[in-house]
Specification:
The chain is mostly helical. The chain has 8 helices and 2 strands; from the N terminus they run H-H-H-H-E-E-H-H-H-H.
Length: about 190
């Protein structure tokens, strides 16, 4: 595993240096991990989701390699950005679905159709995104940790490497952020 981690980091550094062939070598090394992240996300999605994990991986990967201004630092940096892009792809998909529903219906629109299951409770992806945005306005670092852990499936150690903060601080920030988000999401469910 560390050899593959080292290879990914070396390839990313070569891509930084302008080696276009490095990008061709990257996909086979990261594809399985990106599929694992996508599969984890889809275990939390509703069963009738129209977007498939493979499509999510491909969309995120093509957006990643199209990032010309990114100075790749490490494998964790790559997967951190991949997590962020997967979140954005899922949100765009949810927003398009909701827009189509609004076009087809007059009256009240339920957000219950776009859900992520978490700990036995269903969470609305759009409400989660709104809550994450509110958290980011208060504390961007905590919001980034939630995004990396929840959407990216990164471990505490990988988040620590990506953010440059200690693993203990990541765990503390994660606990605080979860409480903050739970409060916001619980409040939004009570208002519905």
């Amino acid at each position: 595993m560390s050899g593959s981690t080292d290879n990914v980091t070396q390839i990313l550094l070569a891509a930084n240096a302008g080696d276009q062939a490095a990008i061709d070598l990257l996909l086979p090394l990261v594809y399985d991990e990106l599929r694992r992240i996508a599969a984890r996300l889809f275990r939390k999605e509703r069963p009738d989701h129209t977007l498939q994990p493979t499509a999510l991986v491909h969309e995120a990967y093509f957006r990643l390699i199209d990032q010309h201004s990114v100075n790749w630092q490490s494998r964790a940096h790559f997967y951190g950005l991949a997590s962020h892009l997967m979140r954005r792809v899922l949100l765009k998909h949810a927003e398009r679905r909701e827009a189509k529903k609004r076009e087809g219906r007059k009256g009240k629109v339920s957000l219950d159709d776009v859900t992520i299951s978490c700990g036995g409770q269903d969470l609305d992806l759009l409400a989660l995104n709104e809550a994450l945005d509110k958290l980011a306005a208060v504390d961007e670092q905590k919001a980034k940790i939630v995004e990396l852990k929840f959407f990216g499936g990164l471990t505490t150690e990988e988040i620590s490497e990506f953010t440059g903060i200690s693993a203990r601080t990541v765990e503390r920030q994660w606990t605080i952020a979860r409480g903050f988000l739970f409060g916001l999401l619980k409040g939004s469910n009570e208002k519905v």
